[in-house]
Write a structure and sequence with these properties.
The structure holds two protein chains of two kinds. By secondary structure, chain A is mainly alpha-helical. Chain A is built from five helices and no strands. Chain B has one domain. Classes of the chains: A mainly alpha, B mainly alpha.
């Protein structure tokens, strides 16, 4: 599918879903009952109109180009693995951060991320970077900025694994 | 210049010269230079990543640090253009044209020196211009009521979205996605929940810092993955002779620097037109004015000096609408405006009245940061460019780690990590499909006040939309908004006509 076709469809669908959700907003009890919906509704309408305009312009362009395929940029063949892996690790970090505490979760997160991006063959440098990064930032936050980072929380870990809270 | 302005500026210097502020200015300038050098991490991403770290500072120190980072990034952006032919950020693109050929010809020292000298001169002249016009603009802005502010924001957003004919529609889509994100949470005027889907974490809305770090920081890195292993190892020149220019070089450059500085400054003041346009325009101007246009692109030193002076002038000019009107003109100033709001400060004309230590302290700090950046970028250039040797495969994980910690410090909660990841994915999608991200960032920062002023104006007029055309200011701003959307088409038509003639 052409790049702008995707953008146009995305905008129309997003505008439609957002508009539908706007109509489900509760009416305001103070002032005009419609007031909280007016601005979002305007946004939804514009998203649909602009998406449709992108689709129309793109159709015209496609007709002018005579169905020639758009040139794809050269990409690293393994990039999809990197993106998916990073997103999974980021999501897991979010869940682990408060339960396992900053140090444990960041050590695991950074090491795994470096193994993914900086490749497993550089495992020694990955370990060194992980350790330096984790403890240098911990020191900076705790001692210089006076910001407490979460410690290991056994109750949260139990809750996370469905083992019940408290001892 | 009025004596009160000079007194205020002197007061600003007394604030900026406090050792804590001065120290942070040095740190910020050095960090900014390094961030500006690294391809993919421009000033916006750099400031966004460092923003949470400034939460522990007093507001004037935080703003001074951020301005120093911004300024340092503008100085540093050209280092990788000259040595690697890869611009550190968009505004440094024009510096590749003649900077890299100069380095190839064994003149890297002169290229590094002239880019810092031109940045210094462009920045210094623009700081003086800033001081001269800030107060008159701020006084004028006191006439603005909710309808005028709403239309002003429409103009700023329209101008940012309509950078080119090809990107106009996608720029507007980006802007509306940004506005959409600002509507999440409890509505400030009616107390009604909107788009929270029953999630407690979304009731206070989506923090704009999360959006900026996600879309700019994480999105940029995910995009960088596409070519990560194709780039190979970076080999950077690490040994240099004396980093300075000859008298002949100076004679060729002084005039181009002086005449392109006002161009950059004026472009900076205009919302939307950022450093890239300023640099490109000044490069083309200088090529047209030059007696040796054939040397451009082959290592002409004035081809490097002119865009460097213009892009630094632009970065100072871009701060004028932010400080005096409370409306950002670029992605980076949007981040800084958001920072002001986090500190509970009201950006705009009253900032000079209610918080002179911040307004004038920051303005004075620009003069000082200009000198600091020149010192960092000329004698220490050889040392700093070593950062360019850090491979992206190491840099990216470190930036991701920093981004998550930064987000944690906003609410001391990891609940926003998932949101950050999703916004990073949105940023990646936008970059892949060539949807400009600056309009989204601008909209995220001004969106909430835009809706509030829109509704306040309607309350004032009992629901009549005529209120948005009530004054000359409103009508002129509508006209400017329409013109900025029509301009890419007019410019395209003029070029076609020229070619046909």
């Amino acid at each position: 599918m052409r790049r702008d076709t995707v953008v146009g469809l995305f905008s129309v669908v997003l505008g439609g879903l957002y508009g539908a959700e706007t109509l489900r907003i509760r009416s305001a009890t103070i002032g005009s009952s419609w007031a909280p919906r007016v601005f979002p509704l305007g946004i939804a309408v514009f998203l649909i109109i602009l998406g449709a305009a992108v689709l129309i312009v793109d159709r015209k362009k496609a007709a002018l180009e005579g169905g020639k395929a758009q040139k794809a940029k050269a990409r690293d063949p393994g990039y999809a693995k990197l993106i998916v892996g990073t997103l999974v690790l980021c999501g897991a970090y979010g869940f682990a951060f408060e339960a396992f505490g900053y140090i444990l979760s960041t050590l695991c997160f950074m090491f795994l991320l470096l193994m993914l991006v900086n490749e497993p063959k550089r495992w020694t440098s990955n370990i060194v970077i992980t350790l330096v990064f984790t403890f240098a930032l911990w020191g900076t936050f705790v001692y210089i900025f006076d910001i407490m980072l979460p410690p290991f929380n056994l109750d949260a870990v139990r809750e996370m694994f469905g083992l019940g809270g408290g001892i | 210049m009025e004596s009160s302005v000079i007194n205020n500026l002197l007061f600003g210097f007394s604030v900026a010269m406090k050792w804590q502020n001065f120290g942070m200015m040095i740190v910020g300038s050095a960090l900014g230079t390094v961030l500006g050098m690294l391809p993919g991490l421009g000033p916006s991403t750099g400031i966004a990543l460092l923003l949470p770290l400034t939460f522990v500072m007093p507001p004037e120190m935080a703003l001074i640090t951020m301005c120093a980072v911004y300024y340092g990034a503008m100085f540093g952006g050209s280092r990788s253009s000259i040595l690697l032919n890869i611009p550190g950020d968009g505004a440094a693109v024009a510096s590749c044209f003649d900077g890299y050929p100069m380095a190839q010809q064994g003149r890297a020292e002169a290229a590094l020196a002239i880019s810092a000298i031109a940045s210094f001169i462009g920045g210094l002249i623009s700081c003086v211009a800033f001081v001269a016009i800030a107060i008159p603009v701020a006084r004028f802005a006191l006439r603005f009521g909710p309808p005028e502010y709403f239309v002003l924001m429409v103009f700023a957003l329209a101008a940012t979205a309509a950078i080119s004919k090809e990107e106009l529609l996608k720029g507007l889509i980006s802007m509306f996605i940004g506005l959409m994100l600002t509507t999440v949470g409890i509505d400030l005027q009616s107390g009604v929940q909107r788009f929270t889907f029953g999630t407690v974490e979304l009731q206070s809305g989506i923090d704009f810092v999360v959006v900026i770090i996600g879309v700019y920081g994480l999105g940029e890195i995910l995009k960088g993955y596409q070519t990560l292993r194709m780039k190979g190892e970076t080999h950077v020149q690490k040994k240099f002779g004396r980093i300075w220019i000859s008298w002949d070089d100076w004679k060729r450059c002084w005039l181009p620097m002086l005449r392109q500085t006002p161009v950059g400054f004026f472009i900076g003041v205009l919302p939307g037109a950022g450093g890239t346009i300023a640099a490109m325009m000044s490069y083309n101007n200088e090529k047209q004015l030059s007696k040796h246009p054939e040397e451009f692109g082959k290592g002409a030193i004035e081809g490097l000096a002119a865009p460097e002076a213009a892009n630094n002038a632009c970065s100072i000019g871009a701060m004028i609408p932010m400080f005096t009107l409370g409306v950002p003109g670029s992605g980076t100033t949007a981040v800084m405006l958001g920072a002001l709001m986090i500190y509970g400060l009201q950006p705009g004309p009253l900032l000079f009245q209610n918080n002179p230590e911040i307004a004038w302290g920051v303005i004075a700090s620009l003069f000082l940061a200009n000198v600091i950046c020149a010192v960092i970028n000329i004698p220490l250039a050889g040392l700093l460019v070593r950062v360019l040797a850090v491979p992206p495969r190491v840099l990216y994980p470190l930036v991701i780690g920093m981004a998550f910690l930064g987000v944690y410090t906003i609410n001391y909660s990891a609940a926003e990590f998932v949101l950050l990841t999703l916004l990073g994915l949105l940023g990646y999608f936008m970059k892949c499909y060539k949807i400009p991200t600056a309009p989204l960032i601008l909209a995220v920062v001004v969106g909430s006040s835009m809706e509030q002023t829109f509704r306040q104006a309607l309350l004032m007029s009992d629901g009549s939309y005529v209120v948005f055309f009530r004054s000359v200011i409103c009508n002129v701003l509508w006209l400017l908004a329409a013109l900025s959307i029509a301009w890419p088409f007019i410019s395209d038509w003029r070029q076609k006509k020229k070619r046909a003639a």
